[in-house]
């Protein structure tokens, strides 16, 4: 193996490493947004709410803040019903 071949192998390896790190960086930079959107989708599916249910959401937040810290009680409110379209 000559020095030329060795230097080309080293350059190729560092090029591949650079591409890999760039892809990992791009994925990790998008991760918080993906998590935020996933939580929003789960909450909307769980509550079956739409954007016209702001009052019901604020009531649930008030009830949750009145609960004793560390209690395992869950909110048993009814889901917000969609308005007539």
Descriptive report:
The chain is mainly α and 85 residues long. It has a domain at 3-51. It has 2 helices and no strands. It has helices at 3-47, 54-66. The protein starts with a helix and ends in a 19-residue tail after the last helix.
Give a short synopsis of this structure.
Helices cover 68% and strands 0% of the residues. It has helices spanning 3-47, 54-66. It is rod-shaped and about 70 Å long.
Radius of gyration of CA atoms, rounded to a whole number: 26 Å
* Average residue-wise pLDDT: 77
Helix content: 55-70%
> Would you count the extended β strands for me?
0
Kindly estimate the percentage of residues that lie in beta strands according to DSSP.
under 5%
What class would the helix/strand composition place it in? mainly alpha
Sum up the overall morphology in one term. Answer: rod-shaped
What is the number of helices?
A: 2
Largest sheet: none
Low-confidence stretches: 71-76
């Amino acid at each position: 193996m000559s020095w030329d071949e060795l230097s080309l192998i080293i350059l190729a390896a560092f090029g591949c490493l650079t591409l890999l790190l760039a892809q990992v960086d791009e994925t990790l930079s998008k991760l918080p947004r993906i998590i935020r959107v996933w939580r929003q989708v789960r909450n909307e599916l769980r509550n079956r709410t739409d954007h016209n249910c702001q009052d019901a959401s604020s009531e649930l937040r008030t009830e949750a803040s009145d609960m004793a810290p560390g209690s395992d009680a869950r909110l048993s409110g009814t889901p917000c019903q969609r308005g007539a379209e």
